[in-house]
Write a structure and sequence with these properties.
single chain; 82 residues; mainly beta; two-stranded antiparallel sheet; two-stranded antiparallel ribbon; 0% helix; 54% strand; elongated
Length: 82
């Protein structure tokens, strides 16, 4: 993944504008899991219309192996934005 938004290490933070230039994350796909079921229920009164559907979204789990900040980045201390 080469679109890294933020890197933090030892209390130092680099925030991208919008991405951190040259930063990369190496990850490995561990597997797929399904989220909790979402119930969708359509009901119209007086016309006997009732439809009930369920949906479970798939998500891919990733294991982060390495984070490369890129060349020339100084890990600057971030602030809370206040």
């Amino acid at each position: 993944m080469d679109q890294v938004l933020l890197i933090a290490s030892d209390g130092k933070v680099v925030v991208g504008k919008p991405h951190v230039k040259g930063a990369k994350v190496l990850a490995e796909a561990v597997g797929e899991v399904r989220d909790d079921k979402v119930i969708v229920f359509h009901f119209k009164p007086k016309v006997r219309i009732r439809r009930k559907k369920g949906h479970r979204q798939f998500h891919t789990r990733l294991a982060i192996k390495e984070i490369h900040p890129g060349r020339g980045h100084k890990m600057e201390v971030g602030h809370s934005g206040t």
